[in-house]
Design a protein that fits this description.
Organism: Streptomyces justiciae
Order of helices and strands: HHEHHEEHH
Protein name: MarR family transcriptional regulator
InterPro entries: HTH_MarR-typ, MarR/SlyA-like, WH-like_DNA-bd_sf, WH_DNA-bd_sf
CATH topology: Arc Repressor Mutant, subunit A
Number of strands: 3
Domain HTH marR-type: 12-148
Number of helices: 6
Pfam family, one: MarR_2
């Protein structure tokens, strides 16, 4: 380890590992629940939820990839699979021949609307029911601060 790298103290290491494990377990359980009950993967849900929240249900590929923190190739392959299932369509951008939009379809809207209550139930059962309102506020403050810093430092 380089001398300039500050090693994690025992408590920092423990908390970081617990946080990572929580994220992995929670993501895995939510994903399995969603897939079993709605036939949407966690990635499908993320794309559809994002598109359902924007005007006209459409975003540029690059904008969607940035919002989801996905690489260009992952976005391209996943959107192609979702388009094949009728959940989204790809539209060329008339103003920019190199650009394209991802647009949610009526079938995609129906899928996210059906999956959303299942997702909320799972989020409550796996996470929200096990934290106090004060803990939730603290976690929200911490999350917002760390996200803002990462967004500020984004390439």
């Amino acid at each position: 380890m380089e001398e300039s790298v500050r090693p994690l103290a025992a408590e920092e290491r423990r908390v970081w590992r617990d946080f990572v494990r929580l994220h992995e377990k929670l993501s895995g359980r939510l994903s399995r629940t969603l897939q079993a009950e709605s036939s949407l993967s966690a990635a499908d849900f993320a794309v559809l939820a994002d598109l359902a929240d924007v005007p006209e249900g459409r975003r540029r590929y690059q904008e969607l990839a940035r919002a989801l923190e996905w690489e260009k190739s992952r976005m391209s392959h996943h959107i192609a699979r979702m388009a094949g299932r009728g959940l989204v369509v790809r539209e060329e951008c008339l103003e920019d021949a190199r650009g394209a939009f991802v647009v949610i379809t009526e079938q995609g809207r129906a899928a996210i609307e059906a999956a959303a209550p299942l997702h909320v139930e799972a989020v409550r059962a796996l996470f929200l029911d096990h934290v106090t309102p004060s803990e939730l506020r603290t976690l929200g403050e911490i999350s917002a601060r760390v996200i803002a810093k990462m967004d500020e430092d984004a390439p």
